[in-house]
């Protein structure tokens, strides 16, 4: 696959590349070198989701379409159950999310198995990448993926059954849900004072990469705990997450 003048030459489609370095001032290699191989997927996942929205905003698109397939959705359902993440569990099986936001997201391959997509690409002689990320072997999602594959071998419909279970979950009206707001630092959607990307980025810039790791951690809760550590750490050049202009 060759890129020429912002276009994929094989298909003649426009291509816009948005890099972590451009958006956040950090490459994934630099982040892994600092944080190690245990929590690196947290950074990549948060930054990637926001990068998609930022790229969409730059292109002034109406909708963002992703390639999440049935395997991905089933893994996400299981992960949200294991994490006890009710808010995400309630919306992770929706084909369209973020309808109230500036750029809704669509997942047209929700019911399509990953192997079906690979077979289609193979017989249509389409280019596709089959290699795994070199930093993903220790990813939490990998354990959910292996478990689901074991279930699928015993029950071929396991993936669609898990998706159906996720669709049928109902959240009690008395359950307190996070209120969606705007990040005070970059303007991105967030239920906290700062969005997750800004919290993680602040930790990187302060030389405290674990600052935003874990649900209970954050800028406010970690400030007092990390003050002494920050004073003894060589300060890094500040690289802020730029404002998101929709």
Distance between the amino and carboxyl termini = 31 Å
Counted by DSSP, the helix tally is 10
Catalogue the unreliable spans. Answer: 222-240, 242-246
Specify the overall morphology: globular
Biggest sheet statistics? 3 strands, antiparallel
How confident overall, as mean pLDDT? 81
Radius of gyration: 20 Å
Q: How many beta strands in the DSSP annotation?
A: 8
| N-to-C SSE string, H for helix and E for strand | EEEHHHEHHEEHHHEEHH
Strands of the largest sheet, in order across it? 1-2-3
Broad structural category: mainly alpha
Q: What percent of residues adopt helix (DSSP H or I)?
A: 40-55%
Strand portion, in percent?
5-15%
Characterise the protein shown here.
- The chain has 246 residues and is mainly α.
- 45% of the residues lie in helices and 7% in strands.
- It is built from 10 helices and 8 strands.
- It has a 3-stranded antiparallel beta sheet with strand order 1-2-3, with no helix packed on it. The protein has a 3-stranded mixed beta sheet with strand order 4-6-5. A two-stranded antiparallel ribbon has the order 7-8.
- Strand 1 (3-4) and strand 2 (7-8) form a beta hairpin.
- The longest helix is centred in the N-terminal third of the chain and has 20 residues, at 40-59.
- It starts with a strand and ends in a 15-residue tail after the last helix.
- The model is unreliable at 222-240 and 242-246 (pLDDT under 50).
């Amino acid at each position: 696959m060759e890129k020429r003048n912002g276009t994929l030459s094989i298909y003649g489609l426009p291509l816009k590349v948005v890099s972590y370095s451009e958006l956040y001032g950090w490459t994934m290699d630099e982040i892994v070198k600092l944080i190690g191989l245990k929590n690196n997927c947290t950074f990549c996942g948060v930054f990637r989701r926001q990068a998609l929205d930022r790229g969409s905003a730059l292109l002034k698109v109406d909708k963002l379409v992703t390639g999440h397939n049935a395997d991905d959705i089933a893994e996400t359902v299981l992960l949200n159950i294991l994490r006890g993440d009710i808010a995400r569990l309630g919306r992770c099986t929706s084909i369209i999310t973020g309808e109230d936001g500036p750029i809704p997201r669509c997942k047209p391959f929700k019911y399509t198995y990953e192997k079906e997509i690979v077979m289609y690409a193979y017989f249509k002689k389409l280019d596709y990448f089959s290699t795994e990320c070199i930093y993903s072997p220790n990813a939490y999602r990998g354990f959910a993926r292996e478990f689901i594959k074991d279930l699928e071998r015993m029950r071929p419909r396991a993936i669609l059954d898990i998706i159906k279970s996720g669709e049928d979950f109902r959240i009690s009206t008395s359950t307190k849900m996070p209120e969606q707001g705007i990040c005070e630092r970059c303007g991105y959607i967030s239920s906290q004072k700062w969005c997750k990307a800004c919290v993680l980025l602040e930790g990187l810039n302060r030389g405290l990469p674990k600052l935003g790791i874990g649900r209970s951690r954050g800028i406010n809760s970690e400030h007092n705990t990390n003050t002494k550590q920050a004073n003894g750490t060589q300060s890094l050049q500040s690289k802020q997450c730029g404002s998101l202009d929709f």
